[in-house]
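User: Quick sanity check before I run a bigger batch. Here is a single chain. Can you write out its predicted 3D structure?
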Amino acid sequence: MGVVQICKGEYFWLEPKNAFENFQEPDIGLIALAFLQGSFAYGGWNFLNYVTEELVDPYKNLPRAIFISIPLVTFVYVFANVAYVTAMSPQELLASNAVAVTFGEKLLGVMAWIMPISVALSTFGGVNGSLFTSSRLFFAGAREGHLPRVLAMIHVRRCTPIPALLFTCISTLLMLVTSDMYTLINYVGFINYLFYGVTIAGQIVLRWKKPDLPRPIKINLLFPIIYLLFWAFLLVFSLWSEPVVCGTGLAIMLTGVPVYFLGVYWQNKPKCFNDFIELLTLVSQKMCVVVYPEAERDRIENN
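Assistant: Done. Predicted structure follows.
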C-alpha cells in the first residue's frame, strides 16, 4: 500500500522539508531512546538462538533463518511505516493510539476492519514465537543449574516444558503491572540490550582467550565490535535521557543477584532449605505431570 500511495503521488510527508517541519532541536539522548524503542519491533532476531536444539541441522539452518527472516521483516516494517506516512501527518501519527487502525479508516473505508485484524494476527504470531523461545531459555537455564530444577522438566507425553511455560506466563503477568506501554518497552529494551552487549563482549573475550575452542558457527570479529560501539551509544545516552526509567529497569535486573547467590552460589544450604525445595519440586512435578528428559536424568544420577 505504501508503494501504491507513492505511485499516486501521495508522498508529501516523505519530503524532508515537510517531514522535519516541526522537528525540535536534536537531542542525542532522545535519539538513543528512539532507537531503543524502535528496536523493540525487531527484537525477535535474538529469539532464534534459543531454539537451536529444536532445529534440524542448526549449523546450516540457523544462519539461513536469520538471513532470510531479518531482511524480510525489515522490508515489511519499513514499507508499512512508509504507507502510514503517505496517508498521515506527523501530528496525526503522534495523536493516534492505534496508527494502523487510523490508517485503515482513512484509506480503506468499509474494509478498515482488515487493519485491526492484521495487527491482532501479527501480535498473536509474536506471542507464539516468544512463548516457544523464552520457555526454552528458562529450560536451558534450569538444566545448567541456574534456575530451579523443575523448570528443566518436560511433559511425560507431549515433551513440552510445561513448568518453563508457566514461569514465562507468570513473568509476563508481572510485567503487566506497568500500565504505560512505552515505559514497559523502555524497561525491557534497556535490560535486553544490556544483556546483548554483555553476551557479545563475552564472545570477543572467548575468541581472544580461547581461540582454539570448536566454533561451528563463526563470524568475523568486526561485526560484534561494531555492535558493541552502537550498544554503548544506545545504553549510555538512553540512561542519560531517561535515568529513572532505565535505572528502574537496571534495578529490576539486579534483583536476580541475591536470588543467584541464594540458589546457585550458596552451596552449603541447610537441610530444611533443601527439603523445602525438594517438596516444592515434587508438588510442581505432580501438578504438571512432568519428568526430567532422559539425558538430564542420567546426568543427575551420575552426579
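Residues 58-87 form the longest helix (30 residues).

User: Great, the batch can go ahead then.
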